TrEMBL record:
Pathway: tRNA modification; wybutosine-tRNA(Phe) biosynthesis. Residues 869-1021 form the JmjC domain. Probable S-adenosyl-L-methionine-dependent methyltransferase that acts as a component of the wybutosine biosynthesis pathway. Wybutosine is a hyper modified guanosine with a tricyclic base found at the 3'-position adjacent to the anticodon of eukaryotic phenylalanine tRNA. May methylate the carboxyl group of leucine residues to form alpha-leucine ester residues. Belongs to the methyltransferase superfamily. LCMT family. Residues 1-20 are annotated as: Disordered. The lineage of its organism: Eukaryota, Discoba, Euglenozoa, Kinetoplastea, Metakinetoplastina. Keywords: Methyltransferase, S-adenosyl-L-methionine, Transferase, tRNA processing. It catalyses: 7-[(3S)-(3-amino-3-methoxycarbonyl)propyl]wyosine(37) in tRNA(Phe) + S-adenosyl-L-methionine + CO2 = wybutosine(37) in tRNA(Phe) + S-adenosyl-L-homocysteine + 2 H(+); 7-[(3S)-3-amino-3-carboxypropyl]wyosine(37) in tRNA(Phe) + S-adenosyl-L-methionine = 7-[(3S)-(3-amino-3-methoxycarbonyl)propyl]wyosine(37) in tRNA(Phe) + S-adenosyl-L-homocysteine. This is tRNA wybutosine-synthesizing protein 4. One of its GO terms (biological process) is wybutosine biosynthetic process. Its EC number is 2.1.1.290, 2.3.1.231.
Amino acid sequence: MENTPPETISKRKEKKAKRVNKKISLPGSVDVRVQHTNDDSVVSKRSAVSCGYVADPFLRLFVRKPTRRSPLVNRGYYLRMVVMTDLITKCIEKCLAMPSNSSHSVQVISLGAGYDTFALRYLLGDQAHEHSGPVHFYDVDFPEVMQSKAALMSAAPPGTFPVDWSIQYENAANPVSSASYSAVGVDLRRSEEVLLESLQNVSSQFSSSNLTIVYAECVMQYMPAEKAASLIQTLATHFPNLYFFAYDQLHPSDSFGKVMTGALQQKQSPLLSVATVPGGTEMIARAKEGGMRHVRFANFYDLSRQYIDESETERERVDRLEAFDEFEEWGEMCEHYGITFATTAKEPMQLGDCFTGCEAKTPGLPSNKQVSVHHWPSGRFGFAGWGNGNVHREELANGDVLLVSFGGFDVIKQHQRVNTFRVHSLREGEVRTVLQENEHTPPGLVFHSFDRLGPFTYVVAGGRTSPTSVNGDVFIFKLHMTATQEVSINSTLSVTCTRIASGSSLTERYRHASVVIGDNKLLLVGGKNSSGQCVTEACLLEIQEGQAVTVQPITLEGLPPLFSAAAAKLSDGRILLCGGVNCAFKAYDTMWYLDIGKGKVDVVQQCAALERFSHTATTVQLDGEEFVLIVGGTSTRPKEVVNLDPIFYNVKSGQMEVPHVEGELPSWSRHACVELASGVIGVVGGGYTCFSFATFTAKPALLYLSPDAEQNMKRCLVASRESLPNGTDPTVGANIQRLSNFLCTERERVRELTFSPEIFRNVATKAEKPCVFRNVNMGSCTTKWADPAYLKSVEGETVVSVHVAEGSHLLDFVRKNFTFRHVQFSELVDHLVSSNAYHREHGEVPQETWYYRSVSTHMKTERSDVWKDFSALGKDLVLPPGVDSFVGPRLHQSCLRINTAPLQLWTHYDTMDNVLLQVTGRKRVVLFPPSQYNNLYMSGSSSPVIDLDHPDLVQYPRMIEALKHSTEVTLEPGDMLYFPANWFHHITTLQGDTPLVISVNAFFHHFESPDYDAKDLYGNKDLPAVTQLRESILNQTRAAMASAQVNPGCALPVEYKEFALRQIIHDLESLANDITAGAQTL
């Protein structure tokens, strides 16, 4: 419970404090954003206090109404508060007790104090009478922050502060002063000139020769590296009896670190020093270089263990406050914060075993193998999240591979637990599934097990909806298809679910390991129960014809209590278990063989590299030998000590080795691994919430384990009919050739009009058909932008996000065969120039195809604006006279597009009218009228048919009809293409006189602005009126279907409803065709 001040703050005084704070003006700079991190911190501390983690009677002065934070944030700030309070208090008491301290006094300086309450708690809290000597506190921060703090203190109830405390918020240099406490307004970056002088000015008691404790919480990394180093040097130089504590963020280069630094950068409060001083080793070196005599560093793994995990009483108290199951996040939090303790005193001060020199990395394992990391075949996997049990592989007769999974914590679905059954085709991407819901349908689950019993048959056991609500049911899922079927993005697969066991205490577990060990036998090992304790008893489930299950308890002698371990079944039937963690947050460094028949385990290996949990163990065959590949995970010790790189365990020899890794390994944890082809492992899912910053979700990736892995993977991705010229099915080949004869090879040309403002206004007002205007005036850009050197000179350092496709020039939005990469503008220009030269010389597609489409710097809230986002280039570009006056007031966004031959951009439509200004290079644009929507096999706003010159007519036969209605235009520099909303367009970049092909789109409204979706940042969201019309038709259709009866009380059979729907679809298509022909107007 919180200790409370004598009275709550009156609303009158609270309003007064707010008025005062409004009068305190903060400069409009990055400083303001950094200062606002103080607000985030104090709100989180207040949440931890209100939840009972720690007592602080003064935080309510600065945050009157608590805002509940997540258990992870509450625990994180609790640990921070407890550790810093304990360390500073111990240091004060040790200083007061030193024989050399003749004055028996200590001065404590908090740098970047913000609304820190340590001084208030120490001087005025319940334990104030226990202190053995005088201590003077100095809270130092920007003057505006100290004035704000003083204003809130002035609104406190009478009696909160002693009468001799002077609180004058108007005084920027010293808004609060007393015999034991001073608030000091100073910019720390001016340390040498101002800090010491300011401290001397506010208190006659201050002396640099006094025993001095200085602490800084999340301050040093926000300062420029040279200023932070200078501050340490200043402190070391002027304070001969100094004890310095710095609590800082660490490790900016891993997955969590990138999210952390990116989030703070986006908030305009960047960590300016973290790249220079990224870890404990660098922290120690900086302090020693600054003149400190003794320096130690404590990581939060050890601090967490000392303050929480090793005290059973405290751990149980904390566990009772809130349900907690964020162990991976806790590990990442421990990894990315640490405390440096440095002193100028002759003798070091002992503050516990946590403060040491940085631990050395454990000796590496042998490294004779190589693993290379590659992008997923499509840029996106349907599941972005974690806790989905596992992913299983189904191979189809045509060579395609399906990946099947269930449930999990889905970041895409608003960070919710889901009960979605997913099917992903390596060739086609996500395949729609319909789970036939009934009384057996499970809720959204995480940390369950998901195992394959046989072809298209799976079992789900355990899992949870919350840490205190654990599932004990067992479910069988059937995917109703056969290996001879083919799937596409237009397929819909049916899934049924049956609950075959209910509520057993043995199956009521989550974070367990599972493995199918025989015909319809499933072993569950470890895990946690609803009490938060480890499940010590394993169980064997015997599933009988997919309808019933018997549960047999198994005691495995020698296996410690654990959860989040990984299991693998070997080819000889043995079961291998490795890693895992216990409830005291201690990971195991052990690998075991499980002997189910004898009920015991044998230790196979013990190695620091195994000290991980939430990892995967996958059996693979390489060069005729069996290996277990261990990937990812989280540890309970620093990554500098425990190497979390992949491990190969040779089953026959028992040797382990860490391979050389080519490419970037993300911080995989809570992910799944599945063998896609010989020597190819797919890694999907995984991630965690990065404390209070944002969420990291690992992108799907491929691991190539052998030299022939790439070729093996390509065979999975290439459709069998594409190899028909050398194939064995002449019937299908003949059909393809016969269909190709019907393709339209000569397209109608887009009409050309002579440009004038009046003609353009007339065309754009009617918005009926596309047209092209040749050689219009668009400024000096047509000549200047043709020069790569000019582009680099004016925008070279600008960071842009480019589409990157590997091994293909056909960009596919539906299957996402590209990823995004941040590069400097100069790098983009150089790459495109070299790619163009390669294509000209060899006639081949470069290894990587890059395409740039500009987005706003604040892409989640603002639209692209070429004149604003590229101020230098924007001076060269103008809209033609008459176009500017018509489009300007209606402009939605303007996009800069840069690429080179032979790129092709997927067919899609936009919901805005559009003018495309061709600045440099040449493009072919193929357009389709809105009437061809169905013939283009649309998925959202894009078509999966990406090669218009060689379409797959077996899979997309209606493209024959679509191409009959297409029109085409080749754009040259200075040309302007107009096309109305909802016209489909496909772009092909052509070789020309210049390597760079640059154009600018201007999207503009045809109707009044309120008629469009205000959240549409890219011009591809349907008008709200269109969306409402579709929803109205669908809802009325669903209602009619639900109420359809043969006779009263007897529902129309579902097969008749389906037939009626297909008749309605035919009728609606006829109606749409009538509208197109102008025969009917609605």
